[in-house]
């Protein structure tokens, strides 16, 4: 694995840092494609849709290529497992989220044949639907394209 291009680490750093803090890592961020956004829905389907829509609008994935959308979908689900502790449920379980996400696309391996990969990181709060009772959560998902 290319030590300079760890897409999961880049996605996690990007989603956790504010704009000023990101300047220290700008050289690592320049080597990959990055899309970011926020989501605060209590419906899992809307969380997934928000990320997919942002990534497609940014041009990071080719919407007409099923394998790219499929890879993104599985990376999102894997990242959400971390946030929801393995239970893909939010509103149904009386939980609310306020998350930022970062999606990174790059080639983490030195061998060209390994191709491109996509990483999705979520960071924010999750908890009871009562303001102030949330706690931090993070999730990371990586999939090959």
Characterization of this structure:
By secondary structure, the protein is of the alpha+beta class. The chain has a single domain, classed as Hut operon positive regulatory protein HutP (3-Layer(aba) Sandwich), CATH 3.40.1510. It has helices spanning 7-16, 19-22, 26-29, 44-58, 66-83; strands at 33-39, 96-106, 117-127, 134-144. Strands 1-2-3-4 form a four-stranded antiparallel sheet, sandwiched between helices. It is globular. Homohexamer. InterPro entries: Regulatory_HutP (IPR015111), Regulatory_HutP_sf (IPR036482). Keywords: Activator, Histidine metabolism, RNA-binding, Transcription, Transcription regulation. It comes from Virgibacillus dokdonensis. This is Hut operon positive regulatory protein.
């Amino acid at each position: 694995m290319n030590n300079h291009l760890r897409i999961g680490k880049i996605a996690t750093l990007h989603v956790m840092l504010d704009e000023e803090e990101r300047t220290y890592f700008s050289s690592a961020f320049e080597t990959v494609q990055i899309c970011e956004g926020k989501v605060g829905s209590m419906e899992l389907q809307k969380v997934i849709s928000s990320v997919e829509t942002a990534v497609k609008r940014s041009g990071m994935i080719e919407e007409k290529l099923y394998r790219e959308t499929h890879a993104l979908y599985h990376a999102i689900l894997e990242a959400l497992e971390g946030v929801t502790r393995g239970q893909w449920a939010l509103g149904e379980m009386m939980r609310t989220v306020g998350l930022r996400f970062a999606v990174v696309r790059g080639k983490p391996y030195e061998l060209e044949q390994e191709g491109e990969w996509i990483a999705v990181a979520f960071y924010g709060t999750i908890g009871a639907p009562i303001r102030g009772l949330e706690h931090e959560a993070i999730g990371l998902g990586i999939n090959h394209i």
